[in-house]
Amino acid sequence: MDIYQLGSIKDSKKFLKNLKVHGAGVTIMAKKMELLYFYIKDLKTPAINILKQDALSIGADLAVPAGAITFEEKYYDCLLIGTKKHIEILSYKELAQPFGLRDLAHNLRDFLNIKEYPVEIMGVINANDDSFFKESRFKDKSAISKIEQMIRDGANIIDIGGVSSRPNAKVVSSKEELKRVKPICDAIRDKKLYKKVSFSIDSYSVNVIDYALKSGFNIINDITGGANDEVIKLAIKYGAKLSIMHMKGTPQTMQDNPTYNDVMIEVSDFFKERTEKAISLGLKRDNIILDVGIGFGKTLEHNIILIQNMNHFRKFQCQILVGASRKSMIDMITPTPVEDRLAGTIAIHLKALENGANIIRCHDVKEHKQAIAVWDRLSKHILQ
User: How would you classify residue 317: left for phi > 0, otherwise alpha for psi between -120 and 50, otherwise beta?
Assistant: First the structure.
């Protein structure tokens, strides 16, 4: 007999099937193979003691501050630890309990049966003169050449924007914005490039979005997160997807000392409010993409927390986009000029994929295509 310890198993069901586990056993055991962690804030002390005992009774656990057992305070933060099977049991068990545990049970159930989406690469084309990475700036014919190159390099989506959203970017009129992107939209329509990949319009101007969607685009990348109902209505009218991004403030103010009581809770509450609004207006949940907005009103620590815990946002059953390509958070970790931040970019994006993202917005499509292919292969266990 020989034995060795395995690393993390990304697809537990596939692993068990390869092991030739009996069909019914695959589903049962897969739920026991994934350890989940839930940080619960401000839980009533009586609820903590009930949840602690219920968790222990099924083999899970609840990490609590020492004073919770002796009721020294009315509320405490705690950490629920258990397999997917444990969480499934607790999500039913706590429905009958008082002190807010019923609400907790409903929240836990949101994290079960998460929808899976394929990984997609979104290339970036900026039709302006002031985007922070000059190698992403293209106009007219040069933009079309770059788009065709990105298609050859393996992009699934190409995002076109006429206005920079970097910190302190100049405000541009929608008339000028349309003037910048119109020739690119026209060429995409005339050459029928929309039949090869999806095109996204990076805008929150109604007239610009409308023109792009008429030209064959099928995604709206809205940095204001669907603040304007008319933008949502355009997505519904054309059957397009809407990417709802979180931003604190505006590009002109967002990095002026951004603060949060808890960045995870505030971003999550924002997504809940905006997705519910979009769905109430008639947008299908499958046509909603969520983007935490790396660098849009966040410090380095905020960005890191969002990337580390990105899996949380999958509870909304929507696609998750992350765009950290060559951003300043890399420079904050290891001082590097923007033109040399590709390695840091790929490191962040692979971590985001590992933690639940599925759309990567980047400047360097070819390099990401290779990195993601290798990462995906390494994530799959093979039984010899």
Answer: left
Catalytic residue among 361, 366, 377, 380: 361
Select from 206, 226, 224, 223 the least CA-distant residue to 214.
206
With cut-offs at 50, 70 and 90, classify the pLDDT of residue 202: very high
- Phi–psi pair at 209, nearest 5 degrees: -60, -45
Question: Using an 8 Å Cβ cutoff, are 84 and 34 in contact?
Answer: yes
Eight-class DSSP state of 257: S
User: From the candidates 327, 351, 366, 380, which is the catalytic residue?
Assistant: 327
- Tell me the per-residue pLDDT of 349-372, one tens digit each, with 9 for 90 and over: 999 999 999 999 999 999 999 999
Segments making up each domain of the chain, as ranges: 34-109, 120-378
> 135 pLDDT exceeds 80?
no
Please confirm, yes or no, whether 326 is among the known catalytic residues. Answer: no
Q: Which residues pair with 361 in a beta bridge?
A: 122
Q: Determine whether domain 34-109 maps to CATH 3.30.1370.
A: yes
Q: Does domain 120-378 have CATH number 3.20.20.20?
A: yes
- Exposed / middle / buried, residue 73 (Cβ in 10 Å: 0-12, 13-18, 19+): exposed
326: left (phi over 0), alpha (psi -120 to 50) or beta: left
Beta partners for 290?
244, 320
Q: Is 327 a known active-site residue?
A: yes
Lowest-confidence region among 24-28, 83-87, 111-115, 252-256: 252-256
**Does the pLDDT of residue 280 top 70, yes or no?**
yes
Residue that the structure tokens 């394929």 belong to: 118
Task: Please give the Cα distance from 176 to 162 (Å, whole number).
Answer: 8
C-alpha distances in angstroms, 21 versus 6, 14, 315? 17, 10, 29
